[in-house]
Amino acid sequence: DIGTGGGFPGLAVALVTPGRMVLVEPRRRRADFLSLCIARLGIGDRVTVEARKIESVKGTAQIISARAVASLQNLLRAASHCATTDTRWLLPRGRLDQDELAALREQWRFMFHVEQSVTSPESSIVVLDKVSAR
């Protein structure tokens, strides 16, 4: 989860899923808070915090999530080194901006669909698959 902030959705997802998870949060104070939560919740064996910008994180992920971090274009540019073409991107957004998607298609190949948010009728989750640079 890129830009985890205070832990949502990353920490919440980590509590309900059994797999390994990395929470990326460059702000030290928030990263320390997340580390404390992970320790107190007893999930440190599978959940870690990277207290750095996504550009410095190594390794790849099966799923990448990021809520309100950057434009889709900037997010893919910054985090694509952490993905393979099999990575699924789950990107909660406000209103879906068709111009933003069109601009994204100029530099990236991908398949996508949009899920309606269950928490806000004006929000959506952009799901990207098979992402690769043009």
Helices and strands, with pairings:
Layout: H1 10-16, E1 21-24, H2 28-41, E2 47-50, E3 63-65, H3 72-79, E4 88-93, H4 98-107, E5 108-116, E6 124-133
Parallel strand pairs: 1-2, 3-4
Antiparallel strand pairs: 4-6, 5-6
The count of strands amounts to: 6
Helix content: 25-40%
Distance between the termini: 25 Å
Please compute the radius of gyration using only Cα atoms.
15 Å
Count of DSSP H/I helices? 4
For the sheet with most strands, the description reads: 4 strands, mixed
Low-pLDDT segments, ≥5 res? none
- Overall pLDDT score: 95
**What order do the strands of the largest sheet run in, or round the barrel if closed?**
3-4-6-5
Percent of residues in beta strands?
A: 25-35%
Given helix and strand content, the structural type is: alpha/beta
Name the helix and strand elements from N-terminus to C-terminus, one letter apiece.
HEHEEHEHEE
Tally of domains: 2
Broad shape: globular
Any key phrases for this structure?
about 130 residues, two-stranded parallel sheet, about 25% strand, alpha/beta
Notes on the structure:
This protein is an alpha/beta fold and 134 residues long. It has helices spanning 10-16, 28-41, 72-79, 98-107, and strands at residues 21-24, 47-50, 63-65, 88-93, 108-116, 124-133. The strands form two sheets. Strands 3-4-6-5 form a four-stranded mixed sheet. It is globular. The model has no long low-confidence stretch (mean pLDDT 95).
